[in-house]
Amino acid sequence: MLPEAMFFSAVLFAIGVVGVLTRRNAIIVFMCVELMLNAVNLSFVAFAQSYGVAGQVFVFFVMTVAAAEAAVGLAILIALFRHRQTIDLEHINILKG
Amino acid sequence: MPTGSSLSMAHGSLPLSYTFFFYVFGLIAVVSAILFVTRKSPVAAALWLVNTMFNLAALYVMLDAQFIGAIQVLVYAGAIMVVFLFVIMLLNLGHADATTDIKGLGTKLLAVAVGIALLAEVMTVMRGHTIGQITLPQGYAATQIMQSGAVAPISSVLFTQYLVAFEITSVLLLAAVVGAVILAKRKDNAA
Question: How high is the ipTM of this complex?
Fold first, then answer.
């Protein structure tokens, strides 16, 4: 099932990329990043079936990093919302030169 | 516990029902992901993403990764997505028209074209590389699970070869907890 799993993984990753490019809601952009991480996890698991269990260990680490990233990222969003009253990325451009 | 699909995989042949359900779960995951990206309301988008993650968990179980499938449901669909929904409701962002997505059909088509180009790129890379020399025999993972359970093969690698990475992960989580508390705290309560 490796080619099929790789196909679904590539499709999900591309959908995540299109979401990051088209959406301007910071929370949805975050969730698109999570979708991309999930797509990569799928190919890790598919390869683990053929190349040894280390791939599943890496999925474990990716999930941990994703949890940490979600906690810190959402805390940043809360702090940002407190200052700007918006999480629309169109209006968050204070770093723009 | 070995499932029916794992048992038949150990004998080297995939039944048609296995392939069928693999495609069904994969297609539901892809369709849910498309719906997730196109929904206006953040809450609806989050719920479609939860659906995608449940179907990915089903794919993990079919790929002989039962433990990963379980923690996918617990950690991703359970914990991380609840945090997302919690923040959406905490900031009262459930309204569909709260934000402006990129405007103009041309820009949207450009973004979709970039996605399709990326997809074609990934497909070409996958087709070009056959890393066949270290492949395990078919059904190896399933037989290993039948012999020692779904968790033991992962844990025996995780707590020996990747022990340092595992310990560093705990530091990462501590840093994330401290960082989240500091960032979300009101400034006037600090000091």
Answer: 0.92
